Amino acid sequence: MSQSFASENEHRAFIGQQARMPLGFRAGTTRFSFTPAEVAKPAQMNLTVLAAERPTPDFAAVFTRNAVAGAPVMIGRRRLDEAAVSAVVINNKISNVGAPSGQADAEAVCAAVGHALGVPGTAVLPASTGVIGWKLPVADMIAAAPRAVDALSPESLAGAAAAIMTTDLYPKARTAAVGAGCLTGIVKGAGMIEPNLATMLGFILTDLAVPRERLRALLTRVVERTFNCISIDSDTSTSDMVLLMSSGLVPCPDESAFEAALFAVCAHLAEDVVRNGEGVHHVIRVRVRGVANREWARGIGKAVVNSPLVKTAICGNDPNVGRLLGAIGKVIGASGWPLDPGHARVAMGGRTLFENGSFTLSTKLEAELRAHLEDAELYRSQPTPDGHFHPPLCFPPHERCVEIDMTWPEADAEEVTVVGADLSHEYVTENADYRS
User: Who's near 250: CB < 8 A, 6+ residues apart?
Assistant: First the structure.
């Protein structure tokens, strides 16, 4: 059942409930002003630390496959060989990608956090998000590190969820219980989102004892079915990362239950990222059934949610379903997959619009499809006096989606769900003005 929120306060209360801190972890954040070396314009940066109360060998991470990877991603890949880790340090505003001395700068910040925690710098993982190409304000970050560590608290992850945001409109947190333990995740992401094994920045903490190698296998499997099945704008970030850490303080009663909980947390967070995407008016959920090859099924779903014509039609609440079939046919034809679009049953909002090779359109169906699109809309565009467009809300009023179902006749094939978004005036405005 989808949630609805009448106000920002109501949504923040929900986030507070979802931001349960697992045993054995603490979170702290601090904020400071600085002037980027590349532009003479004052800015503010949040520095956040998520720390285990004792070093843990049980951690897993997946990273972007973008060939232009940020310094934190390169360091994070090396950290996977460490015997144990103690913390992650996260900054917003600057992504530390392609900057001079990027890796040395990130390692210096890790060393400062490690010193404040009393652990080696190599036990700290870095994570950065923000503008690509700029250099980290290393001296300011090193000075701020003790303040972030002093702020560590076991109370909640809600503050950390808010501190890691950049263009996000609101924080995102989800939790799930397994026996006496829990898993809780927070995520940052709003634009430059078509993850490849991760989302922009995601952090999942658990007190359930699951060994390192099992954590890594489970995270890879779950991310493939959740974060790797979303797209806002078809752009894979240079900084994508999902990290999972276990304090191991609570016995795990059932690994299958743990995997189900991990899937639930990641699936909710993945959809939250799309719903909070830059300028998103509609979340689009595409379910593909009856396709024997999972990669084909995901490719079909991605083709739909990444089609500019489908995205703009949905933004305008226009059930121009010819664009939908065109996107399906394009990817099947270009890929050479042995699938016949004419054998598919296609529905929107539970209403069949294409079956047995033909559309089933009518005046009545057109009105019903439009009503479904309007019901899933998060807000209407409101231009400002200067002609720009800005989202009028800083919370999601509901969790409804545009529901698209495509079914081929292969009965035993696994269902694949892809979640995407429309394309609006606000998206163009946000990205045209991002650095100005």
Answer: 23, 179, 180, 181, 207, 208, 209
Answer yes or no: pTM beyond 0.85.
Answer: yes
How many CB atoms sit inside 10 A of residue 337's CB? 16
Q: Rounded to whole angstroms, how far apart are CA atoms 276 and 278?
A: 7
Residue of 186, 164, 156, 132 lying closest to 47 (CA atoms): 164
For residues 365 and 351, is the Cβ–Cβ distance under 8 A? yes
Burial class (CB within 10 angstroms; exposed 0-12, middle 13-18, buried 19+) of 165: buried
Active-site residue, 48 included: no
**DSSP alpha helices (H): ranges in 93-167?**
102-117, 138-150, 158-163
**Catalytic residue of the set 29, 56, 199, 407:** 199
Cα separation of 26 and 34, whole Å? Answer: 26
In whole angstroms, how far apart are CA 51 and each of 149, 174, 244?
9, 18, 12
Note the pLDDT tens digit of each residue in 142-189.
999 999 999 999 999 999 999 999 888 899 999 999 999 999 999 998
Q: CB neighbours (10 Å) of residue 401?
A: 22
d(CA 143, CA 151): 14
